[in-house]
């Protein structure tokens, strides 16, 4: 199996987690790499804004002399979880807002950690 196909399978596994509706792999520079962005969104804009937000959160955590496990944005009907995936990438995970976000972020980190995504 090619590396890109393996990464796609890993994203599908994360999407299969309970309460997860969409998951995208995004470069830390804001480029959409692969996955599913929310229906009706523009993947390029969605990716760029997520990269900006996690970058700001990481800078803030560095100022606080602490590390960032994940960033969660609580929306009215959904949650958005942003998780680092190595030095070059991140995951944008959209949930139905009903799940345990700590568990979802931890599971996604473990799953993506099984593949070398430095493509």
Please characterize this protein's 3D structure.
With 119 residues, the protein is of the alpha+beta class. The protein has a single domain (3-112), classed as Beta-Lactamase (2-Layer Sandwich), CATH 3.30.450. The chain is 39% helix and 25% strand. It has 3 helices and 5 strands, in the order αββαβββα. It has helices at 3-15, 43-63, 101-112; strands at residues 20-27, 32-35, 71-74, 79-85, 89-95. Strands 2-1-5-4-3 form a 5-stranded antiparallel sheet, with helices on both faces. Helix 1 (3-15) runs antiparallel to helix 3. It is globular and about 35 Å long. The two termini are 15 Å apart.
Shape: globular
CATH architecture: 2-Layer Sandwich
- Structural class of the secondary structure composition? alpha+beta
Gyration radius, rounded: 13 Å
Summarize the structure.
By secondary structure, the protein is of the alpha+beta class. It has helices at residues 3-15, 43-63, 101-112; strands at residues 20-27, 32-35, 71-74, 79-85, 89-95.
Topology summary:
Layout: H1 3-15, E1 20-27, E2 32-35, H2 43-63, E3 71-74, E4 79-85, E5 89-95, H3 101-112
Antiparallel strand pairs: 1-2, 1-5, 3-4, 4-5
Helix pairs in contact: 1-3
């Amino acid at each position: 199996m090619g590396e890109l196909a393996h990464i796609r399978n890993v994203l599908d596994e994360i999407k299969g987690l309970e309460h997860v509706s969409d998951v995208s792999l995004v470069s830390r520079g804001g480029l959409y790499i692969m996955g599913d962005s929310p229906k009706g969104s523009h993947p390029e804009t969605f990716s760029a804004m997520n990269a900006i937000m996690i970058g700001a959160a990481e800078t803030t955590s560095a100022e606080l002399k602490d590390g960032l496990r994940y960033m969660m944005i609580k929306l009215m009907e959904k949650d958005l979880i942003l998780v680092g995936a190595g030095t070059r990438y991140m995951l944008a995970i959209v949930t139905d807002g009903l799940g345990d976000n700590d568990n979802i972020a931890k599971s996604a980190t473990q799953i993506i950690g099984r593949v070398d995504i430095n493509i």
